[in-house]
Design a protein that fits this description.
six-stranded mixed sheet; binds adenosine-5'-triphosphate; 8 helices; five-stranded antiparallel sheet; Rossmann fold; OB fold (Dihydrolipoamide Acetyltransferase, E2P); alpha+beta; 391 residues
Length: 391
Amino acid sequence: MTVPSSTTFWFILPCRFTKTNPLQPAETNAADGSLVVECQQLTRRFGQFEALAGVSLNIRRGEFFSLLGPSGCGKTTLLRIIAGLDLPDTGELRIGGLPALHLPAWKRPVNTVFQNYALFPHLSVSENIAFGLRMKRLPSADIVRRTTSVMELTQILPLAGRHPHELSGGQKQRVALARALVNEPAVLLLDEPMGALDAKLRKELQLELRQLQRRLGITFVHVTHDQDEALAMSDRVAVMNAGRIVQLGTPDELYDRPKTSFVAEFIGVCNLFEGNLIRRTKQLLETETPLGRLRIELPATTIELSERSRLRLGVRPERIAMDGGQPGDNRLLGIVQSISSSGPETIAQVRVGDTLLRVTELNMGRRSVALHAGDSVELTISPGNFFLLED
Ligand code: ATP
């Protein structure tokens, strides 16, 4: 099969119709647990370069799933294989429980929204949306009904007669989304759909897209390199690096329990340091670290924890308190090196021994005495706020 090599297309990917109408609100918004996309050991090489190095993952019906990772990690390659726009060298793909690799893109129950929208410039908004249905020779009345319904859903009905050059970036994004949704796909694939929009519009559309997905109950598979976007929108996220999935979990799992320093640093900001295990009790690890002795809640981990084990530890800046803490917290004495305010939060660099910790605190107007560079400060960290890394 000849497949296009870039994501710049001037065509629409039609798909099979499902018996139910996904454009009607779903009865339940939660993923039902059954699998809609199953990837097993997918590999893809471009010459000597391995873009996918054995990717296995399952996507549940009705979930908002994101593929997150730095540029070049293989996200789009994986999405294109699911879409039927590229083939893996080895591995298996099932969609809706059936083998899918032998199916051309147009026979798969998926639709794709590309970053550049790929709208037909010579067609109006409603003609762009109706195009796929016309190709399938649906009755005119059905085409009008479905096109109108999806334009209402995506709030672009007033733009029906305009052409793409008369639309803003956000409006084009909605038209591209409507054009994909009108085909009633079981799975909607979104390749950086908000990449071309400004930060404020992105935030607004993130919320809308998430609400739309919940209402329709369609499985969304979303590619992004923006960790905030992935965490804000997704039920689950697969973090990718160098052609592999390095961790897959809910946004909370990834943020609170990253398994590697790559994930810890890619998702949010964190303080990383090393330590030695001194003693292990039923609930706690006692460790010697450059910050002093720390008590750490025993995490669920596959890491072997024997005495004197070298540990790699992390703590998020907002999980370190500068205002007293709770009984049982670890207490560290530090000197404020710098302090600044971003508006909603105060960001401090605090030196503890030779280690510089980043600490953030929400500006709740509670602090009676302002902190300045050079001040001594007592930091408190709950034993449950550390995470243990596997690398
Ligand atoms: P981005 O966020 O920048 O879009 P990505 O994670 O989606 O990145 P891919 O587009 O999947 O990355 O590309 C993965 C790697 O495979 C990159 O190094 C890319 O240069 C390479 N690659 C992708 N398509 C081809 C191709 N047709 N020929 C050669 N190399 C390719």
